[in-house]
Design brief:
binds CU-O-CU linkage; 35 strands; eight-stranded mixed sheet; binds copper (II) ion; about 5% helix; mainly beta
Length: about 500
């Protein structure tokens, strides 16, 4: 294969990223596809009317001394998201967001997933260190009970089953806010949009001992945007709305689909009544393509205590938190300075008009605060670049010729390994981008060494996703532990992922 000098420089990571790439791009006639808002075909719901839904915890169907067993059926159902209208969703046990699974470090979870939809599904536990056969590789489909025509991507290693599959999660990692979502090859974006996402909270005794806000003061917030058709159904620009054959979206949306209604736990712009004490909010951005710049308006600010891979070493105060698709920020908000009767609004500085608001907290009750926010939360080893046995350069860019999103110029191919790291070694991955790409690796957690120079404000702690802006380069230190086998890494803008921005690594 021959490369132009510019390509060689880009792949070698020497282009100077932000300096060269944008200049090259802007001289071209067709620009990169930006993410774009899909306008709803009905009047948008009023803000701060509905109450925040507290997500129910799923009860195991059975437990023994080592494991908790869950049976979940994935099916179509009807949800009341908009006033006086029904929205057809695809849901784990027929609900959106899916039921929360609460797991404990050192105790296994068995999740038996039954596919009652008419298309294949795959389940991935995002942020978990899972063996390859349980990780939800995109071609390891669960076909609907009666089968499905073989229209899916050819992959000799695919383990395809019919009707149901049992996933085993070892929970052999730090306590953290994880989430599960669909990962069907080529159709992840629409299937998550229809509702296939839920929380999975991994707890341990060390974290319990800290005395952080808990019980009704520990609240999960799944933020995602959606658009609605005139009849209240979800609107999505799929080329094949049945999601049976042709993958992909209307070309105008291949940069990513943005909804114009912001949902928190499935409720449009909700409100929550709080007491004047500290609360812990575990925030997940489950949107396909939208990033949020979260801020609080009112007498309370955002104090980060955890990220994708669990607690930080200590609390970190932020004015703004930028959260990209699939990232989690665990934050404490202290309402003690807020007068009873006042409100605090969670806003999105990255959004215009209605998308500039997320939800509202109404401070309505005086209470004594029983919780702590210790200055030391956890031990996090300082990342040492010298631990790395190799540096790999990976470029994430749009390719005009093929109209697709590529990694090092390649489309996804289950047979091509982009890296073969050795088990129990560390590597530096130098990630570079042409555009906004939240990049996610399965299996591992990593630490950010540098993000266009130095670690960014949102790179603290153990991460499984790093959000890169246009022309940025980041060095991450990745430790490959746990299992040998084949895993994917990809952009978590789900439209980019479905349109080829995914690669493989095999731990050997
Ligand atoms: Cu949350 Cu491969 O994804
Ligand atoms: Cu991307």
């Amino acid at each position: 294969m021959k490369y132009s000098r510019r390509e060689v420089l880009r792949y070698a990571g020497l282009s100077g990223g932000g300096l060269l790439l944008p200049a090259v791009e802007s001289s071209c006639l067709i620009s990169r596809p930006e993410s774009r808002v899909l306008p709803s075909r009905l009047p948008l719901p009023r803000q701060f009317q509905g109450s925040l839904r507290i997500l129910p915890i799923l009860k195991p169907t059975r437990t023994d001394s080592l494991a908790d067993f869950y049976n979940v059926s994935v099916r179509q159902a009807s949800a009341q998201i908009l006033d006086g209208m029904n929205t057809t969703i695809w849901g784990y046990n027929g609900v959106f967001p899916g039921p929360t699974i609460e797991a404990h470090v050192g105790r296994r979870v068995s999740l038996r997933l039954q596919n009652a939809l008419s298309v294949p599904i795959v389940n991935h536990l995002h942020g978990a260190r899972t063996s390859p056969e349980n990780d939800g590789y995109p071609t390891d489909l669960i076909l609907p009970a009666g089968g499905f025509p073989q229209s899916h991507m050819h992959d000799l290693l695919a383990k395809i089953v019919e009707g149901e599959r049992e996933y085993i999660y070892a929970n052999d990692q730090r306590a953290a806010t994880l989430w599960y979502h669909d990962h069907r090859m080529d159709f992840t974006a629409p299937q998550v949009w229809w509702g296939l996402a839920g929380f999975y909270i991994l707890r341990d005794a060390e974290e319990e001992r800290l005395g952080l806000p808990r019980g009704d003061k520990e609240i999960l917030l799944m933020i995602c945007d959606r658009s609605f058709d005139a009849d209240g159904s979800f609107l999505y620009p799929a080329l094949d709305p049945s999601l049976r054959e042709t993958p992909g979206v209307d070309a105008r949306y291949m940069g990513g689909v943005l909804g114009d209604v912001i949902l928190v736990n499935g409720v449009p712009w909700p409100r929550l009544e709080v007491a004047n004490v500290k609360y812990r909010f575990r925030i997940l951005n489950a949107s396909n393509a939208r990033r949020y710049d979260l801020e609080t308006e009112g007498a309370a600010s955002l104090i980060q205590i955890g990220s994708d891979g669990g607690l930080l070493a200590g609390p970190l105060a932020h004015r703004t938190i930028r959260i990209a698709p699939s990232e989690r920020f665990d934050v404490v908000v202290d309402f003690s300075k807020c007068p009873i009767g006042s409100t605090v609004t969670l806003v999105n500085r990255a959004g215009d008009g209605p998308a500039g608001q997320i939800m509202r907290f109404d401070v309505f009750r005086n209470e004594r605060d029983e919780s702590n926010l210790p200055a030391k939360l956890s031990d996090i080893p300082f990342p040492n670049p010298e631990d790395a046995v190799i540096t790999r350069v990976l470029d994430f860019s749009y390719q005009r010729r093929s109209h697709s999103w590529r990694i090092n110029g390649n489309p996804f191919d289950p047979a091509r390994m982009d890296a073969r790291p050795k088990l129990d070694t560390a590597e530096i991955w130098r990630l570079q981008t042409d555009f906004n790409h939240p990049l996610h690796l399965h299996l591992v957690h990593f630490q950010v060494l540098g993000h266009s120079g130095r670690p960014g404000p949102y790179d603290e702690g153990w991460k499984d996703t790093i959000d890169l802006g246009p022309g940025q380069t980041a060095d991450i230190l990745v430790r490959f532990t746990g299992y040998r086998g084949r895993y994917v890494f990809h952009c978590h803008n789900l439209e980019h992922e479905d349109m080829s921005m995914m690669g493989n690594f095999e731990v050997v």
